[in-house]
């Protein structure tokens, strides 16, 4: 044991005992072929190794994979055909009046006002200055004018407005909605973004809106209205269909797509999912044909003419060459009506729907007064009456809702006769080849925090639902006030998260002060979620114990002592996140850590926390003690205490923190890793963390000692806590039983990996580049990415500053550069963590890095010579992409919500992402670029009026898997990598990759008991509790959500209550695993390669101690059909989900009296 004297602040002297770290300090591998070799030579070497290596993995045996199904329009094929050589939407239109000689052209005009729940103003300011005046004036005007119609979508504003309404206003509003004058479309809390959102968060915001509408209005939406999201997702269409909506309207699609569809008259179609062969997922979709959704771009192709028919008094003059709107009089009505009718007829030629035209009449923040309503309505009523009175005009015009329009279309033409379409509408461009791919990455820290809140809220909802329905808690009559207060916090967190899914929030495209306001809401949601989770854990561990229930009651309702604090990453209202920290205040103190596996499958967990030992180190000095950390737990059937593998080392914060170089207090921070802890489905496990002390000649602490190269730590104690070397440690590889990682000693970045199970060497290098904004008329902003080409390398240190930490649990290499801290980890134990390479970046783009966008580039030896790659669609499915030279580079960037991959005939590299970002691949074979952060100094002319310069150090986390894939799943030509079959297999993740992804985005929850909790109360807490049957769900089933509702709507009859007064819903997803494997997974079997044969999961016994026996299938938002509509959907004893599908159910007790 080596003892080295360490000087702390205040002249505290501590001696460090290295223990096992002695091996890593003195042992050095023999020099290898990598020493002194340039990066180029290294690439040649690893490629040669891969080609000549004799050992190859055994072939995978898999059945033929389900192919992508057929459709009349496939967006992937359309992209091959289009030339993408125009600069704006240009439509030449002519018509023949004889088209309408047999039936009139039906025109439906729909007033609307688009309200952003935050953009240039905060949500609250928009509510008071825009939304409330509009809603008030609309309520009064529609009440007085029975022909008037209106559509609205943002339930977040309706909820605040409703709270301040009088009884008369509420009664009037309910009548207007019931009678169809006022249509509420989509019914979500917001109109969500469709690029960066996770499908589960979208379901949350839809459910929150739908339940509010059901609770207060008894209303269920049937149509969707999405006029402003910047591109449209096929997963969004699927979610809306599963939520019960039959018809949807979209708008922002590439202008060349609009032009092509208009010429082909295919702007209306049945949007279908790629796995669907029957049309069961079809949703009827209407696409607006022109560039905008305002009055000036909705009546027809001539914007200058349409502008003349905006009578609302809006002081906006977008077309100075066009005459101003003229009030309709008896003198001009004939001429004005004919001019408007001409535009309607021209617009009708773009659709093949039985001669029905839809005309939105509104814009952002319209109808703010009854005067504006009166001017618009009166003039249009005169025009309508005139046109309808003239048979020779062969037209009938009316005010109507979106449902009115779709019903007219279906009356004139069967929906089944419209073309089917597969694919999505990314990446969006509105004009001049201006692609909206910048927002995929704008404000990445906000995006990452949103994903953290999703995970924490999900855990909180699962724990609360189980605590609420836990039989011992029911027997003890758990205080209803406690449950309702916890539910209020859940509801608040749901709504804050839902608000952030807005298409100007998670996109990062709101003004700086608005983004700050959103972050406050997310931080509050995170606090509420963790409070609910901690309290629910206490109620479960101490179920049936009155003292525990009283303590939780006091905490939640009377600001009593907190029983369980989160031991997750700390996300302040501003700044970068920091690792969780547990403080020890005395040598004899024991801290109790709680782990909760929120998955319905077994997994291993590695504990990672920082320990603050400031006070105990001072005590250790005076008592001359050796301090070591021990981690133990009660596990197994016998519940005997077991000691876990655990390791202590100086925290990396002693070298550098998220905000830059180390802070003074970091000298007392030590990083603890322990595990792996194998956790069964929904298992709660208590760990004991204690400091063991023993007499010693000098005061010491037992830890592993990292190696530093070319680093002079600023912490005074750091030189004694680290081994400083003169030889670059990256000349040696980082090798364990899973993989051998070779690093470039010049940059410090990863260069290649060898799969130790197969012996195959894979070139896999990481580098970083910068795209600078092009300085021209159109430039990058919050929305747009317009780069100066080519990119340039990110400035690096001439010699890398390196920290290498080797231990029995994980090896990690961290390199420090001027504005980048880059870490690569290889876990030696624990699944699924050890199946992947983990990459963490902390990128600081604060001043002076204006107009810079930094990307991380992965360069592999994979030969995807057809330039294809795959990105996820809202984390639910994958879409095949192709890099096209005919499209500018910025148009080849796509949203990555969770993952992306590229492959050749034998291998696949999959990048799993803990946060949504932009991604591009295919520019060169085997390359993938991931955008990490962007700082743009100016606006891009899309209305925001400012750049994005509020950067904070952005932490991004990824996992990289290299897998062998089955050629039987995807028949390809080995030479070119091209498919040799006309049937393209349905893309997707392997089971191992999906397991690693869910583990990344839904990590095991960590909580720590308060040090002030009494020993009497601790004795009443269980230390090991299983909430689900031990085998959980089948491997291809995923527990997306377990939610409790307190609905008093008549739709939720008492027979649909899980327990009196509340409902319990479960959301399941069934994957369709791709055939492939890493060969590193010990517990993976052949059954994990494909979908399981279990089409049904028995409800009874699925969750322990719950009075649940049956399930009723509902919409995706947990809204049951009316009893008279529900004859074909009765409660069953099993949960049935088909591959690729999402299904929601209400869980019911034994023998519900179903009507």
UniProtKB/TrEMBL annotation:
Keyword annotations of the record: Disulfide bond, Glycosidase, Hydrolase, Membrane, Metal-binding, Transmembrane, Transmembrane helix, Zinc
Cofactor dependency: Zn(2+)
Family annotation (InterPro entries): Gal_mutarotase_sf_dom (IPR011013), Glyco_hydro/deAcase_b/a-brl (IPR011330), Glyco_hydro_38_C (IPR011682), Glyco_hydro_38_cen (IPR015341), Glyco_hydro_38_cen_sf (IPR037094), Glyco_hydro_38_N (IPR000602), Glyco_hydro_38_N_sf (IPR027291), Glyco_hydro_57/38_cen_sf (IPR028995)
Transmembrane segments: 7-27
Domain of life: Eukaryota
Recorded catalytic activity of this chain's protein: N(4)-{beta-D-GlcNAc-(1->2)-alpha-D-Man-(1->3)-[alpha-D-Man-(1->3)-[alpha-D-Man-(1->6)]-alpha-D-Man-(1->6)]-beta-D-Man-(1->4)-beta-D-GlcNAc-(1->4)-beta-D-GlcNAc}-L-asparaginyl-[protein] + 2 H2O = 2 alpha-D-mannopyranose + an N(4)-{beta-D-GlcNAc-(1->2)-alpha-D-Man-(1->3)-[alpha-D-Man-(1->6)]-beta-D-Man-(1->4)-beta-D-GlcNAc-(1->4)-beta-D-GlcNAc}-L-asparaginyl-[protein]
An MF annotation (GO) of this entry: mannosyl-oligosaccharide 1,3-1,6-alpha-mannosidase activity
EC number: 3.2.1.-
A single Gene Ontology CC term: Golgi membrane
Enzyme class: hydrolase
GO BP terms in the entry: mannose metabolic process; N-glycan processing
Free-text remark on how the cofactor is bound: Binds 1 zinc ion per subunit.
Pfam family, one: Glyco_hydro_38N
Ranges where the Glycoside hydrolase family 38 central domain occurs: 434-522
Described purpose of this protein according to its UniProt entry: Catalyzes the first committed step in the biosynthesis of complex N-glycans. It controls conversion of high mannose to complex N-glycans; the final hydrolytic step in the N-glycan maturation pathway.
Entry-linked PANTHER family: ALPHA-MANNOSIDASE, LYSOSOMAL ALPHA-MANNOSIDASE
Protein family according to the UniProt entry: Belongs to the glycosyl hydrolase 38 family.
Protein name listed in UniProt: Alpha-mannosidase
Organism of provenance: Schistocephalus solidus
Lineage: Eukaryota, Metazoa, Spiralia, Lophotrochozoa, Platyhelminthes
